[in-house]
Every structure is written in C-alpha cells, then in structure tokens.
Amino acid sequence: MVAFALVAALTAATTGALSFREARTGVLQQSQDTVIKQLRTQVDRLAPQLSFPPAEAELRRFAGDVARAEPSGSWRVLVGYEDLSATSRPGDPFEELTPDLREAVDSSPATVFQRVNTGDHTSLVVGMSVTFSGDENRGIASGLQVFLTVPQATEQRYVDALVTAVERATVPALGVAVLLALLAARGVLRPVRALRHATRSIAEGRLDTRLAVNGSDELADLSHTFNETAAALEESVAELRGMEARARRFAADVSHELRTPLAAMAAVTDVLDEDAARLDPDTATAVRLISEETVKLARLVDDLMEISRFDAGAAVLHLDEIDLAESLRRTLADRAWADLVDADLPPPDAVRGRVDPRRLDVVVANLVGNALRHGARPVRLRLRADGERSAVIEVLDSGPGIPEDVLPHVFERFYKSDTARTRTEGSGLGLAITAENVRVHGGSVRAGNRPEGGAVFTVELPLRRDESAHGEHR
Amino acid sequence: MPRVLLIEDDRAVREGVALALRRQGHDVAAVETGEEGLERLRSFRPDVVVLDLMLPGMPGLDVCRAMRALDQTLPILMATARGDDVDIVVGLEAGADDYVVKPVRARVLEARIRAVLRRATAVAAADGGIPKIDTYGELAIDRAGHAVTWRGDPVPLAPSELRLLLTLSAAPGQVFSRQQLLEAVWEHSYHGDARLVDACVRRLRAKMGEPSREPRYIQTVRGFGYRFVSP
C-alpha cells in the first residue's frame, strides 16, 4: 500500500521536475539566442565604421552605440582593443566579466556566453571577437572584443512563475496520484491479502475456506483456481476420512461380532480345564489347547475393542484423585507379582494425582508383564515425583534389552520383531494400548536400553489436569 | 443353592454360561427373551438375574427397568457385549447392580454373582438384636432392619444402593474415594470402574429426593470421591 503511494508520488514529482527543467531551458535558451543575435547584428552594423586602431573615445562611442541597440537600455557594453577598453556607461566596473569568459573569447572566434549570479540577480554575459569580413582576410581577428551584460530579471520572474505553476500543478497531481494509488492498492492488495488469509486458513485445516471472486482479471482467475483447488482438497480429505471411518468401524464391528461366539467359548473353558484331568491324554491336550487359545482370543478381542475405542475417540478418562504408589502396589498385588518385582515406591500420599486408576493399572500391568515375560529378573518398578505437576514411572528389567532397530517400533500395533522376542501370549497390541492410555492422560512413554543392560520403559504422567478438559462423572 | 435367572438370546452363550454356572452349583433358569424372563420372575424367584443388554424384542434396558419396578431388592448383573462407556453408564442408570463385559470367563462371572449375592444377603445377616435407627434430618436409616425412610415414607433401595448408603453414613463427614467405595460395596479388589460408584450415587440421590444441584446428604468431593453429611 505504502509502496504504491510512494511510486505514485515519485512519478508525479519527477514529471513536475522534468517539465519544469524543459520549460526553464526553453525560456533561457530563447532569450539568450535573441540577445546574441541582436548583439551580432549591431556589432556587424557598427564595426565597419571604426577606424583601426581605434582611439579610446571612438571605442566609448562604439560601446554606447551597441548598447543603444536595446531600446529599454538594460544593456551594458564593454569594448576592448588591446590595452584599451571602454564601457557604455562611464565608470562601469563590469564586475560580471569573469576571467574564464575573457579567456574563452581570447582563444575562440565564436561567440561565448555565461550566466552569472551577482548578489540576488542573474545576468547573461556575452562575449565575442570582432573579425574582419573582407574576402581575402575572412575570419582574421581584428583585436576588438565586445562584451555585453544583460540582466535576466524578466527571465528570472518567468522561471519563478514557472516554478510556482509547476508547484501548483504538481501538488494536486501528487495528491490525486497518491489517492489513485491507494485505490489501486485496495483493488490489488485486498484480494492478495484475502488469498493469504485463505491459504493460512486451509493450512490450519479449515478446508471449506473459499474466496469471493470479483471481476474477471488475473486475480479473479487466481481466486477461482484457489477455490477449485480447495474444493478438490476438501473432497479428497472427506473421502479419506470416510474410508478411515469405515475401516475403523469395520475393525470395531469385527471385534464385536467375535465377542458372541467367544462369550460362549470363554464361559466353558473352565469346565474344559476341570474335566481335562479325567480324559485320555490326547483329548486332554486338545481340550487344554482349545481352552488356552480361547483365553488368548478373548484377550485379543478385548484389546481390539480397546484400540478401536481409542481410534474412535471414544476413550473417556474417569479421573480420580489417588495415591499413585498405592495404586502401583495394588497392580502388583492383584497379579501376584509383588514377590517377582522389586518395587521402589515413595511413602504413602507422597505422590497423589488425578488420574484414571483403571487406565493407570493397564499401563503399569502391561509394562511390568512385558518385563517379566521378555526381559529377565530382577525387574524393578520405580515411581518418583517430577516436581509438583508430574510423576515418572520406570519399569526396568535385566534382560538382553531391545535391539536398536526395534526400539522405534515397540509402540506400534502388532509389531513383532521375529527373532529377538519370541511369540508369547501377548496380542501385539499391549504396548500400543499402553501408549494410548498414557496419551489420553496427556503424558508420554518411551522405551530405551540401560547402559548396564536391560530395557527401561519410562512413563511421564501429569498429576493435575484441567478440570474442564475431560468429563468427570459426579 | 443360589438361583440364577439368565436372560441371553444367543443359544451358544446361553447354554455355555448355564452349563458353567450349574457346574458351580447354581440353580439356573435360562431364557431367551426379556418377556420370558419377566414371566419366570414370579415362578422361579431368582436370587440374581444375569441380563444380556442386547436382546431381540424388548430391549435389555427396558427389562432391567421393569424388573426394578417389580422388585427393588433383586440383584441384577448386566452382561454386555459393548464395553463402551455409554452402554455401561446407561445400563447402570437403568438400575443394574454391576456389569460384566462379554466375553467373560465363568470364574469371573461366578465371582461377580457371589459378590452381588453377598450384598443382598448381608442385609439380612447384619447384626442380630438391638434395632438402631439413625436419623439425619428427614432421612432415617434403620441399620439393623436395613430400612430407609425419607419423611416417614420407605425408600426402596437396590442392594448396591443400600450398601453404599450404609457405608457412607457409617462415618458421616469422612471422604471415601471411589476406589474405597468400589471395594466396600462391590468388592472389586482390582481397579474397578468409577462409573459404578457415580451411577449408584446418582440413583441414590434421586430416591432420597435430593435436589440435583445441591445434594444435602451425599456430597461430591471434587477430584476425590464422596462423603455423607447430616444436614
């Protein structure tokens, strides 16, 4: 906007300055041409009457005659011949005559002139050598030199008037130009700005952003193209989201459909287990196998349901203010791990926080269970407060650790490193669910290896959460 | 022998669960629909109902409400194939005492049934002798007879609700966390579900004529749990 106005102002000012210079040059040129022509005519007319070498009185009369050629009497003339010189006005010091000009006249037969500023007024000083005009001796200097001073008051006034005129013409023009520039800027810059806003809006995910298309210029074309691109993008994203939603629903539906047959099977596994002891060995093995696999399948379906709940954004936190150390101790006790795990927990009530106890239990049980299965004992569970706002839970084992190439993938669904970790009853979803459970708490979980050997899983859990962030049932 | 009324539409699940429960020593009546279940209620007189929520015809939720209307003290265990929050909460609001998410192992189901039954029978076996009636404003709790009256009118409470009220009012002013209440009332020693507690408190408040905004007796201690106060 400012740039536009500046360019317009500059243009107007330059135009004014240029036209002023042209006009001024024209005015001055014309006046000095007239003067030089008049002077030459006069000199040509009067010089032949001079006798050579002329006497001083004769020179004075010549000077006076030349000066009289201008009726207004503004001419002042100096005539010089060798050492003699005379002026049209007696005692005229003829200050305007500069050494430069005298030199120029001495060295050149042409007429020379110079504008001289003395005090507050400008004068035109013209100098010429008088040459003989006879046929044989054409161009030979007679030794006579004529200098003329003409005050340029009229021209000065004219130029001044010109400046005023240019000023008067340029300033409004300048104003108009700036105004026009601003209008043009609005016309050009506003759509550009709208485009910028729209682009940012799209980038921020508001894909229904569209531009208003005005007129039929390039900007309108651009806006039109933008709208088409945005529409195409919106459509593709909607399609992708639709596909994703369908895939998600499919996973949820499949898991759900699996539940009914599994419910029947799971109900009787205990019956099978009990009776297996009384069956012949082959049948007993088959029965136990079916029973075990049914339990695994039931757990897998549970995990799938849980994952699809996270995917659908339907996992809700039920926050409760609890003692974290007590919760961890209970997790170990409930699974009969208290003797297998070396628990390094703070005293009661040292670390309290608002968490979802069920989800915390899932997280800790999964990490400790993994350490017991895949790592080697001793397995350690540590809890400490990290300042007022968060807690750090660490699960360390003394096994071979996790291969470096596997580390970045351990929280991925169904990720199985085929060599390092043997297939176990885990569904391959446990760590993914762990990560999701930590994430809904606003915390983080990472896996690593200890320098002294063994894997370490570190959970950072915020202890205080914004009350309004998640619904709490009262 | 505890009598279990099982309402489940899927034949395999119904037969599997019935078989497992019979092996545990229960007297099981297995029916296919909610309507049938309601019919058998009078003739079979179950000690506990295991109710599937997704039923053809009359929905499980309606069956649950209808049973509650007939018998406030009958323990109802809800079995749902949907573990989503909304299903569980709605089921609990309809008056179920507890819920299990299918698939469930017979041993787990059995444990839940026993816990529910204990709540119901603990009422009868409480303490033998001196009737002790505590009065809190307009609310009177007969700890021995396990009867609650509000403004002189009896308040019909489900076993979980009664047990929750007895637990809370045993120590007026003391704050109980949801976990403590889960253990005391539902005997969930694992990290049970706070939704059970919340849903039960809501039902209890409604029956005691509590204004929803400012409950007088059972107050929520934000971020911690609940406490009973005498107005």
Automatic annotation (TrEMBL), chain A:
Its top-level enzyme class, in one word, is transferase
Domain HAMP: residue ranges: 186-238
Domain Histidine kinase stretches: 253-465
Q: What is its EC number?
A: 2.7.13.3
Task: Give compartment(s).
Answer: Cell membrane
Catalysed reaction equations from the record: ATP + protein L-histidine = ADP + protein N-phospho-L-histidine
One Pfam match, by short name?
Answer: HisKA
Q: Keywords assigned by UniProt? A: Kinase, Membrane, Phosphoprotein, Transferase, Transmembrane, Transmembrane helix, Two-component regulatory system
| Xref: PROSITE patterns | HAMP, HIS_KIN
Q: Which SUPFAM superfamilies match?
A: ATPase domain of HSP90 chaperone/DNA topoisomerase II/histidine kinase (SSF55874), HAMP domain-like (SSF158472), Homodimeric domain of signal transducing histidine kinase (SSF47384)
Question: Main site of residence?
Answer: membrane
* Gene Ontology terms, MF aspect: kinase activity
InterPro entries this protein is in? HAMP_dom, HATPase_C_sf, HATPase_dom, His_kinase_dom, HisK_dim/P_dom, HisK_dim/P_sf, Sig_transdc_His_kin-like_C
> Could you tell me what this protein is called?
histidine kinase
Q: Origin organism of this chain?
A: Streptomyces koelreuteriae
TrEMBL record, chain B:
The OmpR/PhoB-type domain covers 131-230
Residue list for modification 4-aspartylphosphate: 52
DNA-binding residue intervals: 131-230
Domain of life, per lineage: Bacteria
Report whether rRNA-binding shows up as a keyword of the record.
no
In terms of Gene3D superfamilies, this protein maps to: 3.40.50.2300, 6.10.250.690, Winged helix-like DNA-binding domain superfamily/Winged helix DNA-binding domain
Annotated PROSITE patterns = OMPR_PHOB, RESPONSE_REGULATORY
User: This protein is called what?
Assistant: Response regulator transcription factor
Q: Does the keyword Phosphoprotein apply?
A: yes
InterPro entries reported for this sequence = CheY-like_superfamily, OmpR/PhoB-type_DNA-bd, Sig_transdc_resp-reg_C-effctor, Sig_transdc_resp-reg_receiver, WalR-like, WH-like_DNA-bd_sf
Pfam families in alphabetical order: Response_reg, Trans_reg_C
Q: Source species, please? A: Streptomyces koelreuteriae
Entry keywords, A to Z? DNA-binding, Phosphoprotein, Transcription, Transcription regulation, Two-component regulatory system
Question: Which residue intervals define the domain Response regulatory in the entry?
Answer: 3-117
